Each structure stands twice: as C-alpha cells, then as structure tokens.
From TrEMBL, chain A:
Example of a GO cellular component annotation carried by this entry: TRAPP complex
Subcellular location(s) of the protein: Endoplasmic reticulum; Golgi apparatus, cis-Golgi network
One record GO biological process: endoplasmic reticulum to Golgi vesicle-mediated transport
Organism in which the protein naturally occurs: Leersia perrieri
Main location: endoplasmic reticulum
CDD domains per UniProt: TRAPPC1_MUM2
Full protein name: Trafficking protein particle complex subunit
Family listed: Belongs to the TRAPP small subunits family. BET5 subfamily.
Lineage: Eukaryota, Viridiplantae, Streptophyta, Embryophyta, Tracheophyta
TrEMBL record, chain B:
InterPro entries: Longin-like_dom_sf, TRAPPC
Presence of keyword Cytoplasm: no
Gene3D superfamilies from the UniProt entry: 3.30.450.70
Subunit structure: Part of the multisubunit transport protein particle (TRAPP) complex.
Chief location category: endoplasmic reticulum
The name this protein goes by in its record: Trafficking protein particle complex subunit
An annotated GO cellular component: endoplasmic reticulum
Organism this protein belongs to: Leersia perrieri
Family from the record: Belongs to the TRAPP small subunits family. TRAPPC4 subfamily.
Length: 166, 216
C-alpha cells in the first residue's frame, strides 16, 4: 500500500497551501466534502490527536469514552479481519496486538446510518472518517488527509509528537 | 433424520422414518387407512407437523417431500465461509467453502462472538440515531456481509471483494433457516443447527449461485 503520494500533489492544493502551520482542520475544505460527519485521528498508542465533528446529532458517551470505544473497536476489528482473512493460511492468534500493516486490514465498514472509513499509516497513525452511508470509496480522501498531517503537523517544529494537534 | 440420499430435484420421493427433518409440505402418495384431512396439510406449523408425524410413527409410508422452491438469486462471487450466530453471540452454524488455512472450532467460536460485540459497539458509535449495526465490512482481501434478523440472529458471509447481491443471498439463507430450522420440532432455540434439510437446501442454493457465477 502506498501512503506517500509525494509532495507534488500537495503543493497544488490551494486552501491549505498558504498556511504552513498549524494544520487547518482537515475535512473542512477539500478533505471530507459535505458528507463528512466526524473525523478522528489516533496515534499508535491510542491517544486521540484530533477530533472534529460536523454533523453529529446523537451523543451517547462523553468525548473521552467515545474515543476510547472507537479505538477499541478498530483494534478488535483489525485482529478480527486478520484472523478471518480467507486468502492467507498463516494467521496469528486472535487478540494479539498487530503491527501496522501486519495481517489483513480493512478500509471501511457500513451500517444503515453511517459509513466508517479507516486508514492506518505505517507509523501507526489511524485516520477515521465517518461519512454518510451512501458515499463512495474514501481511501484517496484519507490519503490526502494523511498527507496534510505529514506536511503541516509532523513537519511543524513546534509540534510535540503524541500530543493533541492544536 | 436418516432417510435415503435425496436426489437434487425439487420434488423427491423419500422413505420417511421417525424422526425426520421437517419438510415444507408433505403429500401422501399412498392413502392412510385413517385418512385424516391432516394428511394433506401444508406443514407450516411445527405443532401440527409433530402431531402428524406421531400419526405416521410406527408405519413406514412413502410420502412426497417438497423441498424448498428454487430461488432466483444472482450473486456473482464466491463465498468463503458462512456463519450464523444467535442473539447472544454464540455460533450456531459455521460452514467453510474453501478458505485458505484451517479455522478450528475454537477460533470460529471466538470470531463469532467477537463479531457480535463489534456489531453492538458500532451501534453505540453512530453519529445519527437508529443504527442497526454493521452490514458490510470491506477489507483488503475480502468483503464481509452481515444480515441481522428481527430476533437478533445474525447471518454473515465472508466473500470475495466486490461481491454483488450477497444481501439477497443472506436473505434467502434466512428464509431457509426459518423454513427448515425454526419449523423443525426437534430444534432447540439458540442451539447449534443440525438439520439435514437445511444443509441440503443450503448446498443447493449455493450450488445454484456458483453455477450462475460460472455462467457469466
């Protein structure tokens, strides 16, 4: 899987090109489009680096519990997909933490009320974009958001890794 | 549950002995001496079927068993495996159709209950009300389609990526489940499915599916 689309495509993005740091909220401009509802960014350790919501009428849990639940769901779904994967014979044990890129991962799931798009970078950054259930493939959007993250967060000298993006 | 190997036609002649799986309908080809109206009844209520079978018990009768009518489904990709889980997350049916590597019994049970919890958590995380859980999971090597019945029984199939109309297939399987499992008077609710007619009809449906795939 190719995550690094190269900087050339990034320089052609007008909305964020003028603001070097800190990151403009991804998804508001070119990122998610009008159908984006919620965006989460987690690092390898499960710290929520960024949370944005545009359309969320239902809130059952407080923000920290919600983020923990989301990270737990992704963790378990990752081990589920790598275990149930019918195309590879060599599968690890269920519930053992997987390295980024190890085993079969998933890129989206759909319910009747939302669609969750998921991207995990080789460094363990997890991007989750929740959209309307009838949106198409959002993998390119997520790659684009990841590129924005690399460009404007990772390359920002004032940013301390592992802290929420401000 | 033991009667002679059925031929794959829609109406098969069987020698029915006691106990048997519940067929969709029974028609006696030789009249019974106490020819009751129940003898020609469509056996859609388990209780009636049970009483009827008690009449039959002890006698050996030649009856006509009408298996499930052929369903027109046009799913267009191979299924790797099929799971049915009950409303509390226990695996009640698992069938593998050629996935690489063996999933042993313990692992399939774990996967089933893990899916049950994932399904429940996904409802909690919905940004809008009225969520009924995951119905499609797209992974890099496969697609997982899930169908939940109103009673909470979940049917999920692991298929090739981009498989079409699997929802329809799952609904057909649900229909088979209601016809041949739930109407079987010897089936205990929420317990593993061991019904010969269900296996038979499921195999037929999937075979038809595979033929439709090859014909393309």
């Amino acid at each position: 899987m190719q995550f690094f689309g190269g900087g050339s495509s990034l320089t052609s993005v007008p909305p964020d090109a003028g603001t070097p740091a800190p990151a403009a909220p991804p998804g508001t401009g070119t990122g998610g489009g009008p159908s984006a509802q919620v965006l989460y960014v987690f690092n390898r350790g499960g710290v929520c680096l960024l949370y944005r919501e545009w359309h969320r009428p239902l809130r059952t849990l407080d923000p920290t519990q919600d983020q923990k639940l989301m990270f737990g769901l992704l963790f378990s779904l990752r081990s589920f997909t790598s275990k149930i994967d019918p195309t590879t014979a060599e599968k690890g044990n269920l519930g053992v933490p997987l390295l980024p890129g190890q085993g079969c991962s998933f890129y989206s799931f759909k319910t009747n009320t939302y669609k969750l798009n998921f991207l995990e970078s080789p460094s363990g950054i997890k991007l989750i974009l929740i959209t309307h259930p009838r949106t198409g493939d959002q993998r390119d959007t997520l790659k684009h958001i990841y590129n924005l993250y690399v460009e404007y967060v990772v390359k920002n000298p004032l940013y301390a890794p592992g802290t929420p993006i401000k | 549950m033991r009667y002679s190997t059925p031929r794959p036609s829609n109406s098969v002649r069987h020698r029915i002995r006691f106990p048997v799986d519940l067929p969709r309908s029974l028609r006696l080809s030789t009249p019974v001496s106490s020819s009751s109206p129940a003898a020609c009844a469509d056996l859609h209520t388990p209780r009636a079927a049970f009483c009827f079978r008690r009449i039959l018990a002890g006698r050996s009768l030649s009856v006509e068993v009408s298996t499930h009518p052929p369903c027109v489904i046009m799913a267009s990709a191979a299924i790797y495996s099929l799971f049915i889980i009950n409303k509390s997350g226990g695996l009640i049916y698992y069938k593998d159709y050629g996935s690489a590597g063996r999933t042993d019994t313990n692992d399939s049970l774990r996967l089933a209950s893990l899916w049950h919890s994932m399904h429940a958590i996904s409802q909690q995380l919905s940004p809008t009300p009225g969520c009924e859980g995951i119905d499609l999971l797209q992974a890099h090597n496969f697609d997982l389609h899930c169908f939940q019945s109103l009673t909470g029984t979940k049917f999920f199939a692991v298929c090739e990526t981009g498989a079409q109309n699997i929802e329809v297939l799952l609904k057909v399987i649900y229909e088979l489940y209601t016809d041949f499992v739930l109407k079987n008077p010897f089936y205990e609710m929420e317990m593993p499915i061991r019904c010969e007619l269900f296996d038979l009809n499921l195999a037929q449906v999937l075979q038809k599916d595979r033929v439709a795939l090859l014909g393309r």
